[in-house]
UniProtKB/TrEMBL annotation:
PANTHER family registered for this protein in UniProt: NDR1_HIN1-LIKE PROTEIN 3 (PTHR31415:SF4), OS05G0367900 PROTEIN (PTHR31415)
Assigned GO CC terms: plasma membrane; plasmodesma
InterPro entries documented for this protein: LEA_2 (IPR004864), NDR1-like (IPR044839)
UniProt keyword list: Membrane, Transmembrane, Transmembrane helix
Native species: Castanea mollissima (Chinese chestnut)
Name used for this protein in its record: Late embryogenesis abundant protein LEA-2 subgroup domain-containing protein
Record's subcellular location: Membrane
The keyword Membrane appears for this protein: yes
Positions of transmembrane segments: 42-64
Domain called Late embryogenesis abundant protein LEA-2 subgroup: residue spans: 95-197
BP-aspect Gene Ontology terms: defense response to other organism
UniProt main location, coarse: membrane
Amino acid sequence: MEEKQFHLDEAYYGPSIPPPTRSYRYHGSNDWCDDCGSCCCLISFLLQLIGLAVVTVALVFLIFHPSKVKIHVTDASLTLFNFTTTLNYNLALNITIRNPNKMIGIYYDSIEASAFFGDRWFGSVSLTPFYQGHKNTTILSPVFEGQELVSLGASDLSVFNSEKSAGVYDINVKLNLRIRFKLGNKVKTWRMKPEIKCDLKVPLSSNGKSGAGTFEATKCHTGF
């Protein structure tokens, strides 16, 4: 049998190579992260963290049954509220904070009370931080006193003069708080910043007497 000879100048590609076969396998969580990249892993981690936070909050409500803290301005004394080019004022408040919870204490790490005429700020007072125990009522007594350069437009000035004639002023007080909850004896939450707003109608008084009636206790609006 004659053996076939190949010349060097002829192209020889060898035997044909079969196409590769694709294999499929299950990708575990680590493989999925490798394929998808760090961004997907971060999203997965954040979703797990959110889920854990939701479960934690649900457990807190089931175990401790927290009730909203109740805040009222129970007394207000306004002995000076006069405007020329500056606003001269003397306002004293009693603010009660009631924690109705049986198993939750509250750390008030930072407390600042700010007073406004309409939307015009005229004074702020920093109060002493404190811890409020279970089913406890605390009284805060901020005093706003001094003078402040306040710019009143024609509309604001008209409102001021109208309230001056009536002897009762609309004054808004906001409490800027930084608080933490203590659950039971050991667990403490992260720091929160609730929004507290008290819309007051305060009569101007002189020598402890007011010709426009007495101040009525006012409930403050609380939001987280």
